[in-house]
Amino acid sequence: MKLLKKSLGLCLAAVMSLSCLPLVSAEEAELNNVSLNKYVWANSYYSADMNPTLVVDGNISTEWANGSISQKPVEGGQCYWAVDLLKSYPISEIRFYVRSGDGIDWARENFKIEISEDSEFTSAETVYETVPAVSYGEEHVVKLDVPKTARYVRFIKMDNGEGGFGLAEVAVMSAKENLVDVARGKTTEAPYSFDGLGSELVVDGMPAGDWANRFLGANVSYLDIDLGEDYQKYDLEEIVYRPGGNNFDDTANSNFRIIMSSNKAFPQDSTTVEVYRNTAGEDQPVAEELRIDISEAMQLQTGAAKTFRYIRITALATGQQKSISEISVLGRKLAGEGANVAKGKTVTSSSAHAWYPNTAAVDGLFVPEGVDGNRWLTDGTDKNRPWIVVDLGAEYRLNSLVFQMKGSSSDPAIDPVSYQNFQVEIAKAAEDVLAGTLKDSKAVYVTPQEATVTGRISVSLEGDEGVCRYIKIQSLTDIPGDQWQQFGVAELAAYSTDLPYTPSDSIEFLTSEADATPVGTVPESNAFAVRFKGANSGNEVKNVTLIQAGYTDGNLASVKLYTMSIPAGVSALPMVQSVSTADAEGDSFRFYVWEDGTLQPLYQPGEISRAV
């Protein structure tokens, strides 16, 4: 199926070219380190201050070295280090620094770099290989002629571990594509604005039209942006500041700072961080577009993403005027479309600590920011594979799950039980929820390679595979169950564009738009209908394209396109589209939707075949 989908994509590239932006080569595109503070593991490490996480901490002075502390039993004696990027990226370059020091060439030779879509590297592709030792103290860059998509990257020795292995830093570079402006159209506040030059102009997506403040006297100019609840669907990467043209004086775009916070009051504590400062007398006024990398600010030391919701641009002196054309906050999509249908729903668990209730796991907040109790933890006696179950109240078709684990300590090295050896299951029915038993459940995530997984983890679900009512997270091993070793979850979110799902609304083939009789083969008339659900959370009508792909002997034979319109503000609409195979080639047909630049298959049992 992967090959067929790839062939379909090649055909669609030409068909859909009128609606696509010009392609940018890997050489021209700006690259971003997508491995920074991501989830890593190795077969072993030497000591706590030479552990595998130090390879993606952005600091070349810290190193990992293999050693006596085993993370995973050695396979074939080969030393390795690997990183999970959390999702697939088009990888353009892999940059790395090896372990430093004279006389240890054995730690820098006979290794290769592999990329893969699976954590076991059964589909691994080697992109770099060396036998002689590479030099230390300098950056080595592996450039891929064509970007290759993968989720996992592994450095592995080829000499069965003789002499060991070590790395100082690895950066997996991907083009800054598919970034979304999370700030566009969001709520703004600027109490000292000129009439007609309101703060909403900085998030309207248009460079024309500037915000400016009026005469301030002894007041300080500032502008706030509230990214809203859906900011947590993205890994935020960059703020783009575009100065306005209303330059009242030299200070209009100088002597200011940009801060981010999870607290609307912007307190001077761990909830607030400064990401940019322009100081009078030291820096020139900002005269053109300014791009601010906030990737580092979005990380905790453990690698977990912070949850900054509010952004403030504030002058550093009273009476100073400001003028801004546009502010963009760019992020990569982490969660699916729609609402978090798990928020505030009924939760049961094997136990709950008196200070850390199970309801905290569905309160809508990832990573506690100054609120120690914002997580669920087991009590000190719950040792037998602890679990937590969320009841959505009805069946939904989920398109993604996003969750974050949390133990007794903020340091997974001290309390690893919540970050290793667990799985996430979904199910339509529960035998006995209070006992944590789900009927006909299926695992949608299992901890990879016994890795220590921190931060937000995203699981994509396609078509009907995400239909469920219950979601369960459970430890796969018994735990010590003392006050320092407790199982816990910081947050579980489930995203869906669906109204509560019912089987009658599943994707199906019909005799016609007016006749709901199901068909399994193309009628002799070659005309029938496809019914499925569409959604549109925007304020205007949205057009999507239904794609009918014909196959002969497993090879793509024809492609037909149908344009459909979804009204504004629709959560879930059963849509029926007439289709025809009269002038299409193929002995069987599958259907896809092209929406917002993404090709999605419409899943249903089997496929429809041409009548013989």
Keywords:
612 residues; mainly beta; 41 strands; 2% helix
Write the layout of secondary structure elements.
Layout: H1 2-15, E1 31-33, E2 39-42, E3 44-45, E4 64-65, E5 69-70, E6 80-98, E7 111-116, E8 125-130, E9 140-157, E10 166-175, E11 179-181, E12 187-189, E13 211-212, E14 222-226, E15 234-243, E16 256-261, E17 272-278, E18 290-293, E19 310-315, E20 323-333, E21 339-340, E22 346-349, E23 376-377, E24 387-397, E25 400-405, E26 422-427, E27 429-432, E28 437-439, E29 442-446, E30 457-460, E31 467-475, E32 488-496, E33 508-510, E34 521-522, E35 527-536, E36 542-552, E37 555-566, E38 570-580, E39 588-595, E40 598-601, E41 608-610
Parallel strand pairs: 34-41
Antiparallel strand pairs: 1-10, 2-6, 3-5, 4-10, 6-9, 6-10, 7-8, 7-9, 11-20, 12-14, 13-20, 14-19, 15-18, 15-20, 16-17, 16-19, 21-32, 22-24, 23-32, 24-31, 25-30, 25-32, 26-29, 26-31, 27-28, 33-35, 35-38, 36-37, 36-39, 39-40, 39-41
Description of the molecule:
With 612 residues, the protein is mostly beta strands. It is built from one helix and 41 strands. Strands 1, 2, 4, 6, 7, 8, 9 and 10 form an eight-stranded antiparallel sheet that branches. Strands 34, 36, 37, 39, 40 and 41 form a six-stranded mixed sheet that branches.
Summarize the structure.
This protein has about 600 residues and is an all-beta fold.
Radius of gyration: 27 Å
Indicate the structural class.
mainly beta
Low confidence ranges: 1-7, 9-28, 501-505
Helix content: under 10%
Number of E-type strands: 41
Largest sheet: 8 strands, antiparallel
Question: Overall 3D geometry?
Answer: globular
Task: Average the pLDDT over all residues and give the rounded result.
Answer: 82
